[in-house]
């Protein structure tokens, strides 16, 4: 009886959602890899550091966040 309760509790806890579903984003097929590469190189020159040091990820993310579509 105890095993049945334990198994039921385990299965029930696995079935519950643990986090909200991710926000839906629309796919954009107008992505331009050359623009992305140019921005990457700009950010790399600005933020990359020698090996044991690490870049500040929030600054890197802000630098790389832009619209890479070609209109």
Give the structural class: mainly alpha
Mean pLDDT: 77
**SSE succession:** HHH
Low-confidence stretches: none
Instruction: Please give the share of residues in helix.
Output: 40-55%
Q: Report how far apart the termini are.
A: 66 Å
By DSSP, the count of extended strands is: 0
Count of discrete alpha- or pi-helical segments spanning 4 or more residues: 3
Question: C-alpha Rg, in Å?
Answer: 22 Å
Globular, elongated, flat, extended or rod-shaped: what is the shape? Answer: elongated
The biggest beta sheet, please? none
Instruction: Give the percentage of residues in beta strands.
Output: under 5%
Give a written overview of the molecule:
The protein has three helices and no strands. The chain starts with a helix and ends in a 7-residue tail after the last helix. It is an all-alpha fold. The protein is elongated and about 65 Å long. Helix 2 (33-47) runs antiparallel to helix 3. The chain has helices at 2-15, 33-47, 57-64. It has a domain at 29-71.
